[in-house]
Amino acid sequence: MKLLLRILILLIILLLAGQVWAEIVVQDALGNTVRLPQPAKRIISLAPHNTENLFAAGAGALLVGATTYSDYPDAAKKIQRVGGYTGLDLEAIIALKPDLVLAWESGNRQEDIKRLRSLGLRVYLSEPRQLEDIATEIDALGKLTNTTQTARRFANQFRNQLQRLRQRYRGLTPVRVFYEVWHRPLITINGKQLISTALTLCGGRNVFAGLSALAPAISTEAVLAANPEAIITSSASALQNHDWIENWRRWPQLKAVAYDNLYFVSPDLLQRQGPRILQGIEQLCEAIALSRQKISGLPSQ
To answer: Which residues pair with 205 in a beta bridge?
Structure first.
């Protein structure tokens, strides 16, 4: 009896010290099961939105490595770099001894992800396709890092704000939109990409939704044939200059040019699948609302 009591006391002490955990099991965006014997303490993020989501979950302090453009919040700028979109520094990743790697299915090279797994590293794959998926991933990161309450609170706030946006822009006359990701080569998005979902929320209709590739390269002739009523870009290059606007003005037969519906939305807000996308959606909806006013001939408010 005394021995049993001692064992129970020891278990309680270990639990209070955070040394005994039930196995943590979550599903990532691709349906893969991620198992951790205890909450992650050393995490590497391989995409800027993963970094932002981890901070939103209350676990940003656990990051020991991140990719080049992981620059938000400010604390993320101090984290060691382990590569970028063109490839990863596998030696640096291994040296940091992470117990969890947050990867991006469509943003990281598949051979890099396979290599990380072959080295025995636990990988959580992110790939939000619906706006609600961002909140779901924040919830999952909370479970993986034992910051469940903080993550759940933030995720619910995200869901509530998203619902308010949906209610505000519901039932509006659709505006046909060409969304420009990049200009050389000319790249857009199909209907499965998250930004296309945001366009729909705002009452926009993606003119290239039917293409098979997630981010297809297209021709100028294809844009002319689609004849969108508005052109919106989040190209980082447009942040420095607006040459892309003048480029489209070369085709006055485009409805978007005729209506002067050429707009820019910050790429950091709209092209990252993190919590700040709601700010980007607000800018996107404002641009589409203004486009709708011009098309209908109503004065701007």
So the answer is: 176
pLDDT digits (tens, 9 = 90+) for 103-114: 999 889 999 999
Residue 171 zone, left/alpha/beta (φ > 0; ψ -120 to 50; rest): left
With 0-12 / 13-18 / 19 or more C-beta atoms within 10 angstroms meaning exposed / middle / buried, residue 155 is buried
pLDDT of residue 301: 44
Angle at the Cα of 186 (from 262 to 278), degrees rounded to 5? 55
| Number of C-beta neighbours around residue 156 at 10 A | 13
| Predicted model pTM | 0.87
CA neighbor of 133 nearest in space, from 73, 65, 198, 70 = 198
* Residues 6 or more apart in contact with residue 126 via CB below 8 angstroms: 28, 29, 47, 49, 50, 53, 102, 103, 104, 105, 137, 273
- CATH code: domain 172-296 is 3.40.50.1980
How far apart CA 77 and CA 61 sit, in angstroms, is 12
Strands 24-27 and 63-66: unpaired
Give the list of residues 6+ apart from residue 39 with CB closer than 8 angstroms, or none.
21, 24, 144, 145, 146
pLDDT tens profile 26-53: 999 999 999 999 999 999 999 999 999 9
- Do 177 and 205 meet the contact criterion of CB atoms below 8 Å apart? yes
- Identical fold at 19-161 and 172-296? yes
Helix (H) or strand (E) holding 278: helix 277-296
d(CA 276, CA 46): 18
Q: How many helices (H) and strands (E) does the chain have?
A: 13, 14
Tell me the mean pLDDT in the region 200-208.
97
What is the CATH T-level fold of the domain 19-161, as seen in this structure? Answer: Rossmann fold (3.40.50)
